[in-house]
Design brief:
With 743 residues, the protein is α/β, with parallel strands linked by helices. The protein is built from 21 helices and 30 strands. Helix 11 packs across helix 12 and helix 14 packs across helix 17.
Length: 743
């Protein structure tokens, strides 16, 4: 076939029938994407670069910067340099000499990072990429993990399969960025709704609920991050292979089919042979084979297994930790439904919906006002609009969500009691009503802790203004006044004199609705001001046992407010103090009858011992779960979904690092114009992410509650000192820019 340019030669790859043992009438085909000019991702590079040039995002002659250790690098190099763009590839020491030689021969500049970070090689490469984006004027980054043109590029592959075969019954492909298999299957499903989609992953990859093992040797599939381009709703089945199994399969592919390919193709081949052997007559199976074996000649093809290699897979429930070839069924139709009763509006809210999908559930969000949830559309989650303050409406909506209800949960303080009542009504696991109520109403918390003898501040409950003065007198000054049912530090104030305390009580009692439009409890708490460093205990309860996952060290604004400004996990504490705090948290949870799921217990450590400030019956906010994951490998959101659906928990750390966070806030009243320095901050060694949440044009002020925060920076390192140093450097270059607000 003649082509005008080399770029035009991308695609239209051969489809060959494989000789495998299978029942009569079963067809097994391999789509040889490895016979693109370089490899499968030539398709992606062509699509994303041409679309960027068409839209103006990539100007003529502007640099292209990409992070890759394999075929995406080659594709970007091919298309980018051919079209006259300088190409910079950020990679890591795993890059093979053949790929490196090809990149340099095409005229690319290759940047090799020296060491992985807490999130593996990908995050280390992204830090270096941020430096290049800052230093190269007009540079453009394809962002293969989130660019929708990545999966869109494979519509051509799907069209070629249809042209060659007419119909496909089973499609098998490796999963890394999510583009190839998700893009191809999404296109095929439009005309073949009964297509079975089988993903191939590797042991130690997080893509389908496994713990991350950064030392895994396979390349081209698997990941330490969760790419946005993976649509978990498309999969019917997923297989995991160990390094030994994948490499042995790759050599078998060459020996048996004469296809000299990489380990992604080998892994796909191994799954193809299994599916073919068990297929019904007449089944047509296609496997996508991404890359050729040149660059693996001295690794995969010279590798010798260190132990036995599985020849057949073991079926496991999705979410089971595996070490050898295993698979899990994820039926695309009638998946178990996990009902969310509302959500928190930032942080873990939308992450929870995506996590549920990744774990094989069909999440359904019941919401009174879906418009309050930024990023909801991107979760691809079903949303049901109903009055979530009406228990009957919530029950009806949950019952209509699906026959196969797996559980119900929430990530919002405001809906703990609602969720508990729904679980009880549906006969599903959930909190006892009394425990949920005690988490929401701090006056009930105080009563339960008092009866159990758990350390807490002196306090008094005020439900009318007439009792305010005596409450202040009984507690003493200075004191803290706060709503009994507040959240996010709203209306919490340190009061140094009686007049201020009485005014704060009046303000709280005058409020009839909270930020969610719920009726307020009509009670204020006047509490002793307890001095001492602040900590939170990240707890998880299962089978009557409360496990302390770790202790977070917290910093807050200067008085009179108590807005968190930063976190460090794990807290820099002597082991005895850490154990004392954890034991106090266990007693506190037992006192209120809290027996299942995540809890976030806030405490201060005084000279007399720990004092419990609050008990929150949900995961910590403020991105603390992300710090826990980066530092320990424990994904608390994953564990919440497991707990809500009765799956076994996995609370064992697989690493021991430190993670910290600082929040972005305004220093003056005004109108936000933007946050500058984000790219520079992202490039600082140790910084994992820089996120801005404030919308330009909104009114801002120095923080008085959590809703005044405008973003955050997360850093990960081996020691607390390194984390603090990275965060200090990042905060020094970030600027929250405002202009005076009229009036």
């Amino acid at each position: 076939m003649r082509h005008d340019t080399l770029v035009d030669a991308i695609g239209n790859t051969p489809l060959v029938r494989l000789r495998v043992e299978a029942p009569e009438g079963v067809e097994v085909h391999a789509k040889l994407e490895l016979l693109n000019p370089y490899a499968m991702k030539d398709r992606v590079a062509r699509r994303v670069i041409l679309e960027a040039r068409r839209s103006g995002a990539l100007r003529d002659g502007a640099p292209i910067v990409e992070s890759s250790s394999g075929t995406m690098a080659l594709g970007v190099a091919l298309v980018g340099t051919y079209l006259g763009h300088p190409v910079h590839i950020v990679t890591d020491p795993r890059i093979d000499s053949v790929t490196l030689a090809k990149l340099e021969a095409m005229g690319c500049e290759v940047h090799v990072v020296e060491a992985m970070t807490a999130q593996g090689w990908q995050s280390a490469r992204l830090e270096r990429l941020a430096d290049l984006m800052r230093d190269l004027p007009g540079a453009w980054w394809p962002q293969q993990y989130s660019n929708p043109d990545n999966p869109a590029a494979y519509r051509t592959l799907a069209a070629e399969l249809v042209e060659d075969l007419g119909t496909v019954d089973v499609l098998v492909g490796s999963v890394g960025s999510g583009g190839s298999l998700c893009g191809t299957s999404a296109a095929l499903l439009e005309s073949s709704p009964d297509l079975k989609v089988v993903g191939v992953d590797c042991v130690g990859s997080v893509l389908f609920g496994q713990p991350d093992v950064a030392t895994r040797k396979q390349s081209g599939l698997g990941n330490s991050l969760h790419p946005e381009n993976i649509d978990h709703r498309l999969f019917d089945e997923v297989h995991w292979l160990s390094d030994d199994e994948a490499f042995e399969a790759t050599r078998s592919l060459a020996r048996e089919q004469k296809i000299f390919a990489g380990n992604t193709s080998g892994s796909v081949y191994r799954v193809l042979t299994h599916l073919a052997a068990h297929a019904a007559p007449g089944t047509r199976i296609v496997g996508i084979m991404p890359d050729r074996g040149d660059r693996y000649a001295d690794t995969v093809y010279r590798h010798r297994s260190s132990g036995p290699v599985a020849t057949t897979p073991v079926e496991v429930p999705l979410g089971t930790t595996v070490a050898t070839w295993s698979y899990a069924s994820i039926p695309r139709r009638d998946r178990p439904v996990l009902v969310f009763v509302e959500s928190n509006t930032t942080g873990t809210g939308m992450l929870a919906l995506r996590t549920a999908t990744r774990l094989g559930f069909a999440p359904v969000l019941l919401a009174k006002d879906p418009g309050r949830y930024q990023g909801l559309d991107a979760t691809r989650c079903e949303t049901v609009v109903c009055d979530t303050e009406d228990d009957a409406a919530v029950r009806a909506a949950a019952s209509a969500a699906g026959r196969n209800l797996a559980g119900t949960t929430t990530t919002s303080d405001f809906y703990l009691a609602h969720t508990a009542r729904l679980a009880r009504a549906l006969g599903l696991p959930g909190h006892a009503d009394e425990a949920a109520a005690a988490c929401r109403d701090k006056s009930l918390t105080r009563a339960a802790l008092r009866d159990a003898g758990v350390g807490q501040p002196r306090h008094a409950v005020v439900d009318d203004e007439g009792g305010a003065a005596s409450a202040v007198a009984s507690v003493g000054l200075p004191c803290v006044v706060k709503p009994a049912d507040g959240s996010g530090s709203q209306d919490v104030r340190w009061c140094g004199d009686e007049a201020t305390a009485l005014a704060q009580v009046t303000l709280i009692l005058a409020g009839t609705e909270n930020v969610r439009g719920q009726a307020r409890a009509g009670k204020a708490l006047v509490e002793e001001f307890v001095e001492g460093p602040e900590y939170s205990l990240e707890m998880f309860c299962a089978d009557g046992e409360a496990v302390c996952v770790g202790v977070t060290q917290r910093t807050s604004t200067e008085l009179p407010y108590f807005v968190e400004t930063g976190h460090l996990f794990p807290a820099a504490l002597p082991s005895a103090a850490r154990a004392e705090l954890a034991e106090t948290a266990r007693h506190a949870l037992k006192a209120i009858g809290f027996e299942r799921g995540p809890a976030h217990v806030e405490a201060r450590l005084t000279a007399a011992g720990p004092v419990v400030m609050e008990i929150n019956g949900r995961l910590a906010g403020g991105m603390i779960p992300e710090l826990v994951r980066a530092a320990t490998g424990i994904d608390l959101m994953d564990q919440q979904i497991r707990a809500a659906t009765g799956r076994p928990l996995r609370l064992v750390a697989d690493r021991a690092r430190c993670a910290g966070l600082r929040f972005l806030t305004a220093s003056d009243h005004g109108r936000l114009t933007g946050v500058t320095g984000t790219a520079e901050a992202a490039g600082i060694p140790g910084v994992e992410s820089v996120v801005t949440t404030g919308t330009p044009g909104r009114l801002v002020r120095p923080p008085q509650d959590a809703y005044d925060r405008l973003g955050h920076v997360i850093a990960v390192a081996d020691t607390p000192q390194e984390v603090d140093a990275a965060l200090d450097r990042a905060m020094a270059v970030l600027r929250v820019e405002t202009v005076p607000a009229a009036g």
